[in-house]
Each structure stands twice: as C-alpha cells, then as structure tokens.
Write a structure and sequence with these properties.
Oligomer: single chain
Strand order of the largest sheet: 4-7-8-9-10-13
Shape: globular
Bound molecules: flavin-adenine dinucleotide, iron/sulfur cluster
Largest sheet: 6 strands, parallel
Helix content: 25-40%
Distance between the termini: 17 Å
Length: 1002
Amino acid sequence: MSDVMRPISIESLLDWVMKEYRKTGTIFGIRQFYKADKSKKISLFNEKMEVPFGPAAGPQTQLAQNIVAAYVSGARFFELKTVQVIDGEDTGIAKPCISARDEAYNSEWSTELRVPQAFEEYTKAWFVLKLLSREFDLGDPDGFIFNMSVGYDLEGILTPKIQKYIHDMQDVSKTPIWGECLQAARKYMEQFTRIDEEYLNEISPYVSRSITLSTLHGCPPDEIEKIATHFIKEQQLHTFIKCNPTLLGYDYAREMMNKLGFDYMEFDDHHFVEDLQFEEAVPMLKRLQNLADRLQRNFGVKITNTFPVDVGQNELPAEEMFMSGRALFPLSIAVAKKLSDAFSGKLQISYSGGADIFNIKDLFEAGIWPITVATTLLKPGGYQRIQQMSNVISSLEYPNYIQLELDKLTELVEKSKAQALYQKPIKLPISPKIKEKLPLLDCYTAPCRGTGGCPIDQDIPAYLRYVSEGKHLEALKVIVDKNPLPFITGTICAHPCQTKCTRQFYENSIDIRGVKLEAAENAYDELMATMEKPERKENAPKTAVVGGGPAGISAGYLLAREGYPVTVFEKGNDAGGVCSQIVPEFRISMESVQKDVDMAKFMGAEFKTGEAAPAIDSLKDAGYENIIYAIGAHKHNNLRLDKGEAINSLEFLSDLRVDPRHNVYGEDIVVIGGGNTAMDCARAAKRLPGVKNVSLVYRRDKRNMPADEEELLTTLDEDVTFRELLSPVSLENGYLTCEVMKLGKRDESGRQRPESTGQFVDIKASTVVSAIGEKVDDSYFNELGIQTDPRGRVLVDPDTLETNLEHVYVVGDAHRGPATIVEAIADATKACSSICEIHNKNYERANKNIDLQEPRSKRGILLTDEDPVSQAERCLECSTICESCVDVCPNRANVVINVNDRPQIMHIDRMCNECGNCETFCPYSSAPYKVKFTLFNNEEDFYNSTNQGFYVIDQATKTCLVRYKDKEQTVELNTTSNTDIADGIIDLMETVIDDYDFCLAN
Ligand SMILES: Cc1cc2nc3c(=O)[nH]c(=O)nc-3n(C[C@H](O)[C@H](O)[C@H](O)COP(=O)(O)OP(=O)(O)OC[C@H]3O[C@@H](n4cnc5c(N)ncnc54)[C@H](O)[C@@H]3O)c2cc1C
Ligand code: SF4
Ligand code: SF4
Ligand code: SF4
C-alpha cells in the first residue's frame, strides 16, 4: 500500500485496453459504452464536442486511464486535473483525501503527479481517445475537448515548469511522449480493425487550446487579472476564470447552509473577506471579456471552485478541506445567477458544483455549458453515471450562442432552497457499514442483511426480486421463513436494513419495509390457503411463552412450525403486545396484528388471553419444560417535577387505543421526550377532540432526538409544536415551566450535551405526558429467582438467552429494554433455536441472481421522478454483484477478476493514491485498498506495503513473491505444492498471469 501512483506507459495502456476488451468486453471496468451522435456538436474554443459534458478537474482526470474510462462512458469535455508549480510528493497531501458519503470533502488540491508526468498522462489520454473513438466507433475523433486547469499564482504560473506545460499542451507534436504514442500505436496496429497509418498521421497534436485558471483563496484581484491577461494575450488561450462561492458573502453562505440542514459545517468569514469581492469581480471580468473579444478568444467563468470548510469532526487528516456535491449546488447556482444578472446573461459559464442527473437538464436549459462533475462520479456507479447524463444533454437542442436564461436561473436558485434533494435529513444518518470485516475472496454481500442491518437476516434481495416479478406468494414465503410477523413488520418495523441499503447512494434507500407489506397484502390469503399444517412431533417438550407481544407471537410461531407444542399466555384481551395495546391504531390496525397472530395459530400455537400467566412452578407442574418470558419493558421512568405531576405515556396511549375520542386531558397537551413513544403520544393527542395545542418538549434539538427520521417528519407534518432545548421543571396553574438549555460539548457518543442556561419559559399545559422511557421490571424477574444486573437487566447466556434458571429464557424488550419489533423476533428465534432446530434458512440461495448481467445493468443508472420504477425493482441485488469499490475508484485501482467463473476483486497497488473513496462505499467495516489481495508491479512496491498480495517475478514459470497472512514467500505456482496459501488465492494469481496479464505491465 503506497499512495504514490505509477503511471502506465502508452504501450501498456494500449495493451490493457485491447486485451481487457477482448477478454471481458469492458474498458477499465466500464461495461456500457456511449456512442455519440456524430452529427450533433457544439462549438467552443474553435473546437467541437459531441456533448458539452464531462469530468471536472479532479480525481477523474488525473491519470490517463481515468480519462479513458470517462470517455467511453460518454464524457466529451475534460477539465484536466489542476497543475501548479508545487507538484508530486511536494504537495504533501495527507491521505485519505476524499470523504464523499453524502456532500463530499476533499483535501487534494492539485495533481499528485509531477507536472511533466501530468503532461504525459494527458497526452497519452488524448491519443488513446483518438484511437478508441475510431476503433470502437464511439464518436467523431475530433468530438471532444481537453481543457487545462492551472493554478495558483502568477509567480508559479510564470515558472519555466508551468510555462513549458502550457506551451507543450498546445502542441505536443515535438515532445518525446508523442513519438512514443505513435510508436506504440504502430506496434499494436494489427490489433486494430479501423486504424491505419494514414489515420495515425492525421491525429491532431493540439491537445488543448484553452485554460481554466484556479487561484488560491485570498489571491488579490489585480493578480487574477494579470494571470488571465497573460493567458489571453501572451498564450493566446481561450480562458475561463474559476470563481469561488465566497463571492456570495459570508452571511448568504452561512444562512443557506443552516437553512438546508448543513449547520454543522464549520467555516468562518476569513475567506469571504480575503477573496475576490463581487464588486471587484464584475468590472474585472468585463475588462477581460473585452480583451478576449478583441483577440477573438473565448472568455468565461468557471462556477465554482469547491468551498473551503474547517475539518470539524475528523473527516480528513487535513487542516482545511473543500466541500462539493449536493450541498455546493445551492451556493454555486446562486453565484451563477448573481454573475449572470450583472452580465445580462452574456457571460459564458462553465459549470460544476453539485451538478448531477437531477439538475443537469435544468442547468443546460438555463444556457449553462459546458457542465462538469466530480462528486457524483465518486459514488457507486462511478463513471458509469456519465452515460445517463450525456444522454440527457445530447437529447436537448444545442445553442450556437451564449445567452443565459435569467428566469430559469432564478427558478433554479429557488428550487435549490426548497427541494429535499439539497437538504440534509433532520437526523444525521448512521453509518451505512455493516460490522463484518471484508473477506479476501467472495466478498459480494447485501448490506441490508448484515450486522447492523436486518437483525433476523431476512433474504431481502430474494423477496425484492420476487415482488419485482409480481411473484408475491413466493416473496411472502421467503419473508415468513424468518419473519413470523409480516404485517406488523411490514407496517411499523424500525427497518434498520434501510440504513445500510446501497441504493441510498443513488437516490435514497429502498423502502424494504413497504415491499414486505406489499407481499403480505397481496399474498396472505393465498399463503394461508395453501400452507401445510406442520406435523406434531411425538414427545416434543412443551413450551410456555409468557407474553403475547411480538416476541411471544414469534416464539409461538417458530416452535409450532417445528411441530413443538407451545402455549402463549397473554394477560391482555388480545395478543399483539405494544402493537395491539399501545401503538395508536392510525399506525397499525388491529386487523394487521390479528393476521400475524392467526399465522402462528395456524401453525399450531395455542393462545391463552385475558389473564396473567401462572407462576413458574405451576407452569412446570402443567408440563411445560421450557418457559420463555416475553413480557416487554413496561416499567415507567418517572419524570421528576418540582411541582405537579406528569402522566405516564404508555397509560396515556393505551387509554387512547381503547377510546381515542374521549378527551379528559384538556386543550393544551405537552409531551416530554424525543423518542418514538413521544411522537406517538403527540400524534395521538393531536387527534383528540377539543385539543388546541400539542407541544413536544425535549432538552436537545431535533437532530439529537432519538426518534426515527420518519417519525419526526410525520409528527412535524401534523403540526405538533416542537419546543427544542427545554428541560421541564414544574407544572403549576396550567403552565409547565421549563429551563432553556444550550448544546455544549460532545459526549462519548458524539452527541452534544445539553447545558443549563438559567433562563426559563412557561408553556401552557392542561396535561403533561411524560415519554422519557421505560425499563424492564427487574423486581418481577427477581421474585421469580431470575438474576438481573445492577442496572436491572436480566442476565442471560448471549447465545441462547437462557437465564440462570435452566430452560427459562427471556426475550424481546424484557431482555433488551425498550427495543424494536424485529429485535424481538431475533430474540425469539435465538431462544427457540436453543429448544429445537429452527429451519429458517431455506432461501439463502435465492438472494443470488443467476443472471449477473441483470444487476450489473442497473449500476450507474439513477432514477428520476419520471422513471416509473417500483421500489422492488430498484434493488441493486448487492449479494449478486457489489463492485462498489470498482465503480467508485477514480483511478481504476480495483478490478474484477473472474476466477473459476466467480468474480473476485483484486487491488492494483500502482494505480492507487490511497484517496480512501473505496473505503467509504465498501459495505464492510474495512478498506478494500488495504484489505483486498493486491497486485504489485515491482518488488520495491511489494516491500513498501503491508497488504496481502503478490508480485509476479517471472510470468513464464509463474514465480511470484507473495504476502499471505503476514508471511512473505516466493512461490512457483506451477510446481510448489503444500504452501499454506489458500487455493482460492493461488487460483486468483494464476488467473491473473494467464488471463489478465495486461495488469502486470509497467
Ligand atoms: C409507543 C411505542 C411505539 C413503538 N413503535 C415502534 C415501531 O414503530 N417500530 C418498532 O419496531 N418498535 C416500536 N416500538 C417498540 C416495540 O413495540 C417493542 O420493541 C416490541 O413490542 C417488543 O415486543 P415484546 O414482545 O418483547 O414486548 P411487548 O410488545 O411489550 O409485549 C409484552 C406482552 O406481554 C404481556 N405480559 C406482560 N406480563 C405478562 C404476564 N405476566 N402474563 C401474560 N402476559 C404478560 C403484555 O400484556 C404484552 O402484551 C414501540 C414501542 C412503544 C412503547
Ligand atoms: S440495493 Fe437491494 S440488496 Fe442492496 S442493500 Fe439495498 S435492498 Fe439490499
Ligand atoms: S483503490 Fe480506493 S483508495 Fe485507492 S485510489 Fe481507488 S478509491 Fe482511492
Ligand atoms: S466494495 Fe468491493 S471489496 Fe467491498 S464488498 Fe463490494 S466488491 Fe467487495
């Protein structure tokens, strides 16, 4: 593992492209090639391009292979990665340097190559694109444009190093690399079908005749003007000047970020004060535009640079980082509008800054082009996202003049302030990573099922696929294999699976819960009519389940399905627990709960309702050998008030469940708490007749409330008044007095602690409902002789949930404290598995699609509002194909190798700069660039790394230097036997040497 990239020679590049294409039909991992309409072009810089769209100066234009991947995906405008006088390792860029989970941050401010190396990369890329466009008929060989990006101050730009770069890029014909390109192409001539000597001789050596100036924050306006003048006058270059979002002023930027929920982003006003001011920018740009007009050069602005923010929460190992992606859009588009107004729409804008499939059409129709992107390409789908955007732009009419549509720009600015697309969710999302570590081989996995995802490991990809095919019965069979409560969970499951869903990086997570309900609603009757009753097992031990909530019903279902006799004792009149006694009916109907109960009854579980279960001894006397306690956690945490009393939330909800229209609580109901129970209380209170105000009081802010995002949003939608940062003190004379709190330092969990301010407010309150949590009734268990810990939690064997009393188990909320329905099912499954074998792994194989092409064809395609695609169809089938690390690597350093017909991921050391992006999107708690078996291209790199991997010393004898499980050894794959290296790894190395030798070259 080393962050130094070693560029690939032109000969090896050609070898790689041609061989990879022949072997797998891909080029640098890109599966779908974009074929441009050669008759449709747009002019810029006296050149033409088929689509005014491509990668921005950034990670996707650093190496030749990146540019090639972007081209075959559909890019036709390339803003090359910025070069400047400080280059290579002198840039001192600390790694990782990209963090792109949502809005992105980076600290890679210019190319990490030396300037001459960068020049060679761009030249090779240019040359290869000329060959590929022709060979694969992807478009007009003169249908794309390379645009230089140079920084950062006049002194640096005037150095011989940068001057030579700018000079040579305009005409590479006299440079050695050009000769090498031609020579390599001649060597490979026989492999081409459409390229001949004549074509080679016609390839234009004029790589770039345009430049985008990037200046450092704080660069004085006269210096910017001098540099631009130098480009236009001395270098005769078409010139764009990159503008910063700081042109908007600090107040605008801060207010906008706060309004859109990015209030946690830390930045002060120093860049805003030191950077170019809008009032200076306009006359300067006008002077430059006039100069360019006189000299017949194109002139415009690039909007915008990334936005400098402080490293607030260890996002990257840097002092300052640069924000991009969806949070940048509202700022960049506002800069575009402000400048366009000042120029009556006559100033050309080259745009990046949060451009993506969701706004690219609007941008282009507002007269903005060319458009470049970087952040969207860092997400799963990667370069393959380009094709969709190129299709959109190329379907629109191309203008032949510059005129920004000011009204449309205004609309875009307004949209950016209002659309959910640009807003951070109220609650900061939890990590999408599962707890498991990345395996060396066979890593594809559906994270929705992993640890931290679905606690009962449901076969989600399998049932989503069945639903997408309209096979609801098959889907429901898959669901009930592991989940005895399809209706309850289909309606109100806390759906932790959705927090891990890979689709969140496309648009948003799949509504997995909703698809489950769809299957249940469509196929329940058929399932009940066709299911076979299990046979009763002779002499099987009897089990008593105490409590008929989600945990109890599940235990009854699972044991009965195995043919074991089981009785569920429920003291309430109906089974269902919290779901039938407390959760309001507007969230889950009794009918839904009953359907799940009926399924357990169908299996043979007996339900005894209406009285508490007999004591342990009586149960034993009645022949019950196993007893499972599933009594929930109903002991109320009391709210301490100096004066007055609050009522108990669970009693409040259960009373309303019985009679939701009977108001004995008055007009002004105040609910204390920020969890799901508090939300239910507030929503139920809101529906009571005669209620005027319902307030929710919490000592932190909304972002720090424990309730789920969905519950928060629904409660907000129902006009409950959120009174954040208040701590209740006393209730007197119809008023609740609260102390005003402020958020202070973060605790170990990262949440900011509420701190007193000494200020108080009064809230009108006819009733105060306390929803500050429940706990397990430990005294109940202690009386039974079941041990609990000092915090009142039952002591159990974690593998079986058996207590200190033999064959006595505790499950669900009674075991965990207030938890979730699906965790109650998980507990029931665990305890039942200790009583007998539970056969619930019948559909593992169905999670994999035998057709690999189907999930692969979905990668990189985002769904917009116009796409009529169902939730089930959106599933990417990650257990069949993951490859996120391949998609998101800008440098193509993770590759798929087909070993014995199974796709495996191999990491290529020389192409990786340790940007860290693959770690962000790999579903495991690991970094592919550190963990995956790594190919090294020389011995030095091998020893500079600690990755497990190999260096091929001799291809003919298949002699490799291998590091496997910390042991380094030289292995001759053909002859050495009895190595301690896993067969799968030996096979991988052999396959690389036999079939993927193009990866081995220098
Ligand atoms: C207001 C509220 C809203 C919630 N919303 C959600 C949600 O949207 N999604 C989600 O996943 N989770 C939600 N939860 C949590 C979820 O309801 C619980 O995690 C789940 O119900 C736990 O199931 P359980 O079977 O362990 O306990 P319970 O549902 O509490 O069931 C225990 C049952 O045992 C019975 N019982 C107790 N003692 C005895 C006895 N001695 N003899 C016989 N019967 C007895 C009780 O009457 C009760 O029916 C919510 C909880 C509350 C309070
Ligand atoms: S896309 Fe499908 S398989 Fe992948 S995590 Fe989401 S639901 Fe699971
Ligand atoms: S392999 Fe990972 S860390 Fe390396 S360059 Fe690619 S994305 Fe970055
Ligand atoms: S991101 Fe790559 S390494 Fe991680 S699971 Fe997916 S394919 Fe495997």
